[in-house]
Write a structure and sequence with these properties.
Length: 265
């Protein structure tokens, strides 16, 4: 096993639908994973996150694994902290936004499958097993973590106002785009590399609404996407202000309009 911590259509599932997780019977060509972590001013909590992710990957039977930290113009020592942890670091040209950072990492990742995860690990890295099992079982190219399908898996909730805004955003998103997902904003999504290449090279939004856009593009291109319940605990220190969150309500309309104009062909 060559484990390298290089650091350099909407089907949904309920908890228990997948049965016992066993993904080690996969084809060897699919035993390759990249974990992409966008990071902005994450010097303090990034080292602990990387330690947890590295330990998880070391326990697996991966023929190849890497973690890619995308530094989004941080003003602190984020990049240095990642490199000290043995990281592969990609540098954005300034602070461009989470959507830009994720796109940068997804297009540069080397694994046959690519997970992007928030730096706070609100969804535990171990739940990659759950996404992997769902994708393998259902022959899907995209599996997204969801907090909405089984709220009993949410240990620490967001503040009431932010959680309520999230539910309203989801309703507006479904009306505007026709996507069936109950939670597009959970920062824990798995893509097959070939699909990721085609999806993310078409992504136009750099900010909060990029999650909706990439799922819309996946549907437009005919990729199969699954929504899968994952564990989740809110971690304080979000970089998304309430104002920026409210402004993102326009993003699903932008995505729909871009689709009408044929910008995702």
């Amino acid at each position: 096993m060559n484990t390298r911590i290089a650091f350099r259509a909407g089907q949904t599932f309920r908890a228990g639908d997948l049965g016992e997780i066993s993904y080690y019977n996969s084809s060897p060509l699919r035993r390759s994973i990249s974990v992409v972590i966008p990071a902005y001013n994450e010097e303090e909590r990034l080292p602990a996150t990387l330690e947890v992710v590295a330990a998880y990957l070391a326990r697996g039977r991966w023929e190849f694994s890497e973690v890619v930290v995308v530094n989004d113009g941080s003003r602190d020592g984020t990049a240095e902290a990642a490199r000290r942890a043995g990281a592969r670091v990609l540098e954005n040209p300034g602070n461009r936004g989470k959507g830009y950072a994720v796109r940068h990492g997804m297009l540069k990742a080397e694994g046959d499958w690519v997970l992007f995860s928030d730096a706070d690990l609100s969804a535990p890295i171990e739940d990659l097993d759950i996404l992997w099992a769902a994708a393998e079982r259902e022959k899907a190219q995209v599996a997204i973590g969801s907090r909405a399908l089984d709220r009993s898996l949410v240990g620490v909730h967001q503040p009431w106002l932010r959680e309520t805004m999230g539910r309203v955003f989801n309703l507006a998103m479904r009306i505007a785009t026709g996507l069936p997902f109950h939670d597009t904003q959970c920062g824990f999504k798995l893509f097959e590399k070939s699909a990721a290449r085609e999806i993310f090279k078409r992504q136009l939004l750099d900010g909060f609404g990029f999650d909706v856009e990439v799922l819309y593009i996946a549907k437009h291109l005919g990729y199969r996407s699954l929504e899968v319940p994952v564990h989740w605990n809110n971690v304080e220190g979000t970089k998304v202000s309430l104002w920026r969150g409210m402004a993102a309500f326009l993003d699903p309309l932008t995505v729909r309009w871009n689709g009408i104009l044929g910008k995702y062909r």
